[in-house]
Write a structure and sequence with these properties.
The protein is α+β, with helices and mostly antiparallel strands. The chain has three helices and six strands, in the order E-E-E-H-E-E-H-H-E. The longest helix has 23 residues, at about 55-80. The radius of gyration is 18 Å and the shape is globular.
């Protein structure tokens, strides 16, 4: 496999990320970017004392995977002149039964409503999971990441 990434340098993000997490009492926290412009709540899972009203860290992690994959797929499609009417990414992830409970398998189902080539989409998804989305690549370091896709024609 080639090590060259087929992206413009302007799309490659190498900057450090700085955040602070503040305890709010109970099992709730607030995350803030260094600029303070982005703030979001999180709490422990229900079984660990959370009340289930805001996402827990694992839900944010899985959501971040879907968001990262979605962004990279949309960019790759736009490079080919394709703007989908809809993109949905379903994720099913299983964890090891020993600590730390790494995700041993993550499966993504990508559903795309677009006039896209059946032969092109699998390559875009494979590149996204293995090289373009760093979150997917990190999951692949500790487990298996698989995907399937469905194209719904406009």
């Amino acid at each position: 496999m080639s090590t060259e990434i087929p992206w413009e340098k302007s799309r490659m993000e190498f900057k450090p990320v700085d955040m602070s997490i503040s305890y709010n009492g109970g099992m709730r926290f607030t995350a803030r970017t260094a600029s303070g412009k982005i703030v979001f709540p999180m709490e422990a899972p229900v079984g660990m004392g959370g009340d289930g009203k805001v996402p827990n860290p694992i839900q944010y992690l899985i959501g971040s995977l879907g968001g990262c994959v979605g962004v990279k797929i949309l960019l790759a499609l736009s490079d080919k002149g394709i703007v989908p009417d809809d993109l949905t990414i379903g994720i099913h992830a299983t964890r090891r039964k020993t600590m730390p409970a790494f995700f041993d398998h993550v499966h993504l189902t990508v559903t795309l409503r677009a006039d896209a080539d059946d032969a092109m989409v699998p390559g875009i998804i494979e590149q996204t999971l293995s090289r373009l989305c760093p979150i997917a690549a990190m999951f692949a370091e500790v487990g298996e990441v698989t995907a399937e896709h469905r194209i719904i024609r406009k």
